[in-house]
């Protein structure tokens, strides 16, 4: 039972970590949802802003200025939290691989292997919380930005919704959290 639970948690953690990495690297955190002519599709991300022409499929991207330049707080905080979550999830995966029962590393001391799985669960939990905070922070800031424009009767003709990268970050964070619960609570 313990080995099956470990392998299940590892598979979920691996998939969720890939989701977190993909969300961090991709640039569709905020998408233009109010283009009534459907001439272009605009995505804003953590690293650049891309516009895809719907007629011919040409995609052009504008990279943001240097990483050290002044950026909006939502971009800086989300970048920091997502990169930290990625690093913690990767560390947890490496620790979990060494702690799996099917791996012969520390085979003579099962107590150490169990502690490694438990430690991986704790690290994974920390990474999942940071990733969830980063994803939700960005989403809430997009909502508040739009609400402020509407409350001041400023209509720009553009309405942004949460992009698939934002949803992928939330899904990856929740998957890492579920894997950490499996490792910390159900393994004993």
Automatic annotation (TrEMBL):
<comment type="similarity">
    <text>Belongs to the claudin family.</text>
</comment>
<dbReference type="InterPro" id="IPR004031">
    <property type="entry name" value="PMP22/EMP/MP20/Claudin"/>
</dbReference>
<feature type="transmembrane region" description="Helical">
    <location>
        <begin position="162"/>
        <end position="187"/>
    </location>
</feature>
<dbReference type="InterPro" id="IPR003927">
    <property type="entry name" value="Claudin16"/>
</dbReference>
<protein>
    <recommendedName>
        <fullName>Claudin</fullName>
    </recommendedName>
</protein>
<keyword id="KW-0965">Cell junction</keyword>
<keyword id="KW-1003">Cell membrane</keyword>
<keyword id="KW-0732">Signal</keyword>
<dbReference type="Pfam" id="PF00822">
    <property type="entry name" value="PMP22_Claudin"/>
</dbReference>
<feature type="transmembrane region" description="Helical">
    <location>
        <begin position="118"/>
        <end position="140"/>
    </location>
</feature>
<dbReference type="GO" id="GO:0005923">
    <property type="term" value="C:bicellular tight junction"/>
</dbReference>
<comment type="function">
    <text>Claudins function as major constituents of the tight junction complexes that regulate the permeability of epithelia.</text>
</comment>
<dbReference type="InterPro" id="IPR017974">
    <property type="entry name" value="Claudin_CS"/>
</dbReference>
<dbReference type="GO" id="GO:0005886">
    <property type="term" value="C:plasma membrane"/>
</dbReference>
<keyword id="KW-1133">Transmembrane helix</keyword>
<dbReference type="InterPro" id="IPR006187">
    <property type="entry name" value="Claudin"/>
</dbReference>
<keyword id="KW-0796">Tight junction</keyword>
<keyword id="KW-0472">Membrane</keyword>
<keyword id="KW-0812">Transmembrane</keyword>
<dbReference type="GO" id="GO:0005198">
    <property type="term" value="F:structural molecule activity"/>
</dbReference>
<feature type="signal peptide">
    <location>
        <begin position="1"/>
        <end position="28"/>
    </location>
</feature>
């Amino acid at each position: 039972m313990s080995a099956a639970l470990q392998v299940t948690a590892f598979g979920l953690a691996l998939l969720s970590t890939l989701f977190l990495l993909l969300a961090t690297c991709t640039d569709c955190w905020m998408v233009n949802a109010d283009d009534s002519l459907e001439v272009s599709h605009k995505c804003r991300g953590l690293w650049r802003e891309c516009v895809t022409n719907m007629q011919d499929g040409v995609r052009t991207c504008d990279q943001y200025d240097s990483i050290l330049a002044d950026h909006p707080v939502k971009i800086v905080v989300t970048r920091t939290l997502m990169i930290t979550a990625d690093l913690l999830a990767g560390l947890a995966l490496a620790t979990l691989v060494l702690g799996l029962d099917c791996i012969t590393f520390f085979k003579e001391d099962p107590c150490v292997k169990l502690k490694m799985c438990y430690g991986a669960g704790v690290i994974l939990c920390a990474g999942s919380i940071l990733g969830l905070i980063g994803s939700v922070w960005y989403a809430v800031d997009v909502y508040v930005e739009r609400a402020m424009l509407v409350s001041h009767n400023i209509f720009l003709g553009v309405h942004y919704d949460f992009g698939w990268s934002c949803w992928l970050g939330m899904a990856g964070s929740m998957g890492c959290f579920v894997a950490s619960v499996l490792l910390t609570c159900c393994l004993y």
